[in-house]
Amino acid sequence: MTTAPLTRTTTGRTKRTRPRDRLTLGAGCVVALFVLLAVFGPLLAPHDPNAVDPVNVYAGPSATHLLGTDDTGRDLLSRLIAGTRASLAAPAVVVVVSTVLGTLLALTAAWSGGWLDRLVSGALDIVFGFPGLIMAVLVAAVFGAGLTAPVVALSIAYLPLITRVVRAAAIKERNLPYVSALQLLGAPTARIWLRHLLPNLLPLVLVQATIGFGYALLDVAAISFLGLGDQPPDPEWGLMVSNGAPSILSGLPQQSLYAGIAILIVVVAFNLLGTGLSRRLLGENA
Amino acid sequence: MLEVRNLRKEFGDFVAVDEVTFSLPAQGSLAIVGESGSGKTTTARMIAGLETPSGGHIAVAGAEPAPGRPRSRARRARGRQIQMVFQDPYSSLDRHQRVGDAVAEAVALHQDLPAVRRRARVAELLDLVGLDDRQARSLPKALSGGQRQRVAIARALAAEPRVLILDEAIAALDVSIQAQILALLARLRTETGTALLFITHDLGAVRYVSEEVLVMQAGRVVEHGPVATVLDDPQAPYTRRLIDSIPKPGWKPRRRGDKGAD
Ligand SMILES: Nc1ncnc2c1ncn2[C@@H]1O[C@H](COP(=O)(O)OP(=O)(O)OP(=O)(O)O)[C@@H](O)[C@H]1O
Ligand SMILES: [Mg+2]
């Protein structure tokens, strides 16, 4: 502890960085790295991720193929890097849609109270009763494979999670005297929402979205694994796990293993970042 | 200026405010006293239009508010009639808004001034309650409870209301500031005719702020009259008990535990 570096906190006091904060920072860096990969991945991949090489199938790690090749001789590292975008984009859409809709729903319910609040809460309880992944699988089975249907289904399935938490906080916030003071001054409701309530709820929303992203990524990967989401030859990670599965029994687990590790790293990083942010932004001792 | 008749509020089957009737003329000053939970804040919130009464009438400057949710223009107009300083200074300001901005927002809602004049008006309001430039640039958390309470007073004054309700807003201030604020409010009464409604549980302080006092117990008015009469010759046993609990001369002051006092 005594050797921990000194950092300035927001209050201007110097304080030792605790190991937990360093963990959050590390998780943030990992997340940032993967976001960069998602944006620039195709440019950074050393090989064409879809270039097959029939003489080099199941190659081990080498200087040209750092992680080896898959069953058709495609470079695994390039596929992992190029697949970042596909793997992160769908959960990002799920999280953004459910967060935006959920926050609006939560604010509306908290603001008006009464029957509207009861209606929203009741409807969310019903949605919450359906397991999201199963719903997404069913929807995909009905509407055919492809990402659109599962993403829509997951966005709805994730609504209750965000809405419940934000609604509870919004009710508390809405009942604070400063909101009464603004109403008494005649501030337009839109102004109270946009200038006061939303900014004050934003840290909580951010934390929820961050933690939700990890779960959404896992769900999307599972759907692709089942063959209902992204389709071959896309190097999406869930698809790579399933693509590599047959060769695991022959002692060649690389493709599934590396893709699985990529999923694991991102999920854990988002989770750690989320809990760390929650500690810092919301002052929780979780 | 303010007429309250048979005002009632029920929360479920609990009666928080029971048949409260009083009137407050322009330039008048009325104190409502009563122990914790006697319904003072609830009465004030109903008068301010923040809580719907279960029964009774409230008229400000002769007009009763229209039923239903008022539009924001109507609410601004009402804001110029009644403002309220809330009991809890810690949550009556937005924690992410610099307090000067909070006052500026209130000014902007009520006066269409160019930016320069608006800033001047904000500085003037803050100066009236004894806050300086540095404090104006602070977030609420950097201010003491008493300083926050003064920001809330400045914000309420920005609307230039005809009735100002102060819910325990003076007790948290230290003596010198208290005197300054009371002088400011007295000037406001005489110069603009603003009527004051003081809410407090401290019957001892009433003598300095009001001519008239209304004593509430468990939601009911148990005594109502000129301050001197009520203090010197209380009729209700409850009022007598409250008066007996006022520290007498020779009583050794103990420091108030209020960490909010500045
Ligand atoms: N929203 C509410 N729902 C249910 N009960 C309430 C509500 N608001 C107030 N009450 C109850 O009404 C009663 C009067 O409350 P009020 O806040 O008006 O008291 P007060 O006289 O202002 O007390 P204090 O001096 O402690 O501020 C209390 O018993 C309180 O529990
Ligand atoms: Mg009260």
From TrEMBL, chain A:
Tell me the GO BP annotations in alphabetical order.
transmembrane transport
State where the protein is found.
Answer: Cell membrane
- Give the UniProt entry's GO cellular component terms: plasma membrane
List the membrane topology term(s).
Answer: Multi-pass membrane protein
Please name the Pfam families in this protein's record: BPD_transp_1, OppC_N
The primary site where this protein sits is membrane
- Stored SUPFAM superfamilies: MetI-like
UniProt keywords, alphabetically: Cell membrane, Membrane, Transmembrane, Transmembrane helix, Transport
Look up keyword Transmembrane and say if it applies: yes
Ranges for domain ABC transmembrane type-1: 84-274
Q: Which PROSITE patterns match?
A: ABC_TM1
**Residues annotated as transmembrane:** 23-45, 88-111, 123-143, 149-166, 201-228, 257-277
Family statement: Belongs to the binding-protein-dependent transport system permease family.
Name recorded for this polypeptide? ABC transporter permease
Task: Give the taxonomic lineage as stored in the record.
Answer: Bacteria, Bacillati, Actinomycetota, Actinomycetes, Kitasatosporales
TrEMBL record, chain B:
User: Where would one find the signal peptide in this protein?
Assistant: none
Transport listed as a keyword: yes
User: What's the protein name?
Assistant: ABC transporter ATP-binding protein
SUPFAM superfamilies hit by this protein? P-loop containing nucleoside triphosphate hydrolases
| Record domain ABC transporter: where | 2-243
Which family does the entry's similarity section mention? Belongs to the ABC transporter superfamily.
Give the species. Answer: Streptomyces adustus
Q: Name the Pfam families for this protein.
A: ABC_tran
CDD domains according to UniProt: ABC_NikE_OppD_transporters (cd03257)
- Biased composition of type Basic residues is found at 251-262
Q: What is the lineage of its organism?
A: Bacteria, Bacillati, Actinomycetota, Actinomycetes, Kitasatosporales
Q: Which domain of life is it from?
A: Bacteria
Q: Which GO terms describe its molecular function?
A: ATP binding; ATP hydrolysis activity
Record keywords, A-Z: ATP-binding, Nucleotide-binding, Transport
GO BP, one annotated term: transmembrane transport
Q: Does the keyword Acetylation apply?
A: no
**Region named Disordered:** 243-262
